[in-house]
Amino acid sequence: MLRIHFTDADLARVQVANRPDPLWEISFSLRRFQSRKGLWAYADWHRSAREALHAKGLAPVVRNVLRPLYPGGTYFPDFLTPGEASEGLDAGLEAILDIPRQRVLRELNILDRVNGAPAWTRQLPDAGPRKEFVRTVRNYYDVAIRPHGDHIQAHIDADRSARARDLLDGGTDRLLASLGPYMRWRRPTLEVDYCEDRDLHLQGRGLRLVPSYFCWGGPVSLADSGLPPVLAYPLRLPASRTDETDAHKPRAPLPALLGATRAVMLRATAAGATTGELARAAGVSAASATRHTTVLRDAGLLVSHRHGPVVLHTLTPMGAALLRASGQNPRTAPV
What is the DSSP code string of 7-26? Predict the structure, then answer.
């Protein structure tokens, strides 16, 4: 178990990332190639990413270069997920290049002791091999993750909408308590199901929460407690992704969405809304609202996540684009 200890100052400095962290997503996505656990949730991505990597000739590089550095065990080097990646892939890769040689060597030694590391990794502390490695990471991201960026961002937005509601309804305590099922908030400690037993004292530094699309099976933190505290945690992916037949059902055509009721509901979804709130906005029953959200979801215009006793709906990039095309700003659309 990982026990994260908060002070009052830490509770005031809890943050939730507003977009996917590309280097954390690279790390977790590579693990999806190493384990069948949870593969049902990523079946479409897994198939398309494998095909694209093979087509680009990157499959051997993934197998021999990347996967050994991102093993599915208890440890992988912290230098692979620097905090600068919160500003985007370019910033994260530049940070990897700037990390001191001694730190890279130290973390690779830990990897070798814990999981074993191929001999070629001994070259990574040096500038030339590290630049080549960074190019490999960028190529993998461009082929396996970037094409799915809008889909991943939509799920991040849905999670943030749920966290924002918790924060407004019950403050940081409610936010931290909502992070289950792998975490339990027992003030002033967040207990996290973890692969090792240790304590992390925040000591006024706060905690950056990073929702991750590809994270599966439990949250992950940095191994070095001296680095800025980060906790990457898995999104609750919609249960509908478990149904392979649903994944291949034809989507509803856009003309089916042009009715007045669905237009009102789509505008209301811009700020994130529950089924009950959509029903009230459109003046229909809850059952009718559920049918309308099903059509909108099947058309790829919104995503739905169960959040406690309610279902929360948020726009996808396609839904936002449709609102913009109709003259509505998704950020300011009236509810």
Answer: -HHHHTTEEE-SS--HHHHH
